[in-house]
């Protein structure tokens, strides 16, 4: 047990019953009853104190009007993608059951759900659902979503337990010569690049932008095809060693006012659809831009004031 201390108050047998013995519906009901009693004993002062100290509940550091304007520009740049408004909650295990993510990094609830930590995992679920109904279609989705993650972040301005990100996803059956995979990766990179171009016309600066495309040795030829289709964007080619991705990844960075290269966009190919559908011929490409970080660091009026570097 990595967290043996968490069960010391109830004993191993009780912990095993809670973790594995009870049916899900019985466990959720039990936990709801426990939390109802705990909430009934809380004082207004305790609620106020948590509001002031808990990193999960504090407001975002960016004005909401800034987010609304930012979202409108990002969504306009992704006009070829269907815009989806996701629920704040996801099925329990939405990330850890298909990806290399620890559930300890997720905010789980007592109703058998978890707070969304990454929209791309939910896009995989939605694409799997749609492809079961219409197998021949190609699906392209986008959203801007506030996410919550439980891992520790650097104690620096600009980093937070909850944050807004802008995401894209493309899914469908692979075509000849990996045509869909190459096309989707290229489109995601170009869409994020064009989104940053658009933001630069509306109060943002993203200097010294670079695209990095990473591939395993087996996918180096695909990496070269992707890079060749980017119309002269500044591209760096590197070897991929992170097994979170299915052989291909891209990253996009820009230089902050303090001179630090800040990663803004990240994406790649994933095997999640194959796991969800048992069909390894399905392609799933997903990517995201840290829009809250972009607003915090790269707005012209914020230059030199809001910089995590």
Account of the protein in words:
The chain is of the alpha+beta class and 309 residues long. It has two domains: 11-53, no CATH class; 64-85 and 118-302, Bira Bifunctional Protein, Domain 2 (BirA Bifunctional Protein, domain 2, 2-Layer Sandwich). The protein is built from nine helices and ten strands. The strands form two sheets. An eight-stranded mixed beta sheet has the order 1-4-5-10-9-8-6-7, sandwiched between helices. Strands 2-3 form a two-stranded antiparallel ribbon. Helix 6 crosses helix 7. The longest helix has 22 residues, at 179-200. It is globular, with a radius of gyration of 21 Å.
Task: Name some characteristics of this structure.
309 residues, BirA Bifunctional Protein, domain 2, eight-stranded mixed beta sheet, two-stranded antiparallel sheet, 10 strands
Number of strands: 10
Name the overall outline.
globular
How would you sum up the major sheet?
8 strands, mixed
Helix residue percentage:
25-40%
Give, in spatial order, the strands making up the sheet with the most strands.
Answer: 1-4-5-10-9-8-6-7
CATH topology of the largest domain: BirA Bifunctional Protein, domain 2
Order of helices and strands: HHHHEEEHEEHEHEEEHEH
Number of domains: 2
CATH class placement of the largest domain = Alpha Beta
| Rg (C-alpha, Å) | 21 Å
Beta percentage is 15-25%
Helix/strand-derived category reads alpha+beta
Q: Helical segment tally?
A: 9
Q: Name the CATH superfamily assignment of the largest domain.
A: Bira Bifunctional Protein, Domain 2
Q: What's the architecture of the largest domain in CATH terms?
A: 2-Layer Sandwich
